[in-house]
Design goal:
Blueprint: E1 2-4, H1 5-10, H2 12-20, E2 25-29, E3 32-37, H3 67-75
Parallel strand pairs: 1-2
Antiparallel strand pairs: 2-3
Length: 77
């Protein structure tokens, strides 16, 4: 959709609603496209390897079986 400068200023909130619905909006001045409105998408945070290194401890028996818990899962509460 292309709108002129005056229409864009007058109907900004309506144009933003259209952006949320996926509409592409071009703003024209004297019939010539000069700007394009786009929806904002936040940048994804960059992952930082080893961020929790030495902060999480796994004990040797962390995945060992516990008879009481196994019974609860198998037989229900």
């Amino acid at each position: 959709m292309t709108v002129n400068m005056h229409e864009a200023k007058t109907n900004l909130s309506k144009l933003i609603t259209l952006l949320d619905k996926g509409e592409e909006i071009v703003i024209a001045k004297a019939g010539n496209p000069v700007a394009k409105l786009v929806s904002y998408t936040p940048d994804k945070k960059k992952r930082s390897p080893n961020l929790l290194k030495d902060k999480i401890v796994f004990y040797e028996d962390f995945d060992s079986s516990n008879d009481e818990i196994t019974t609860l899962f198998e037989d229900g509460l």
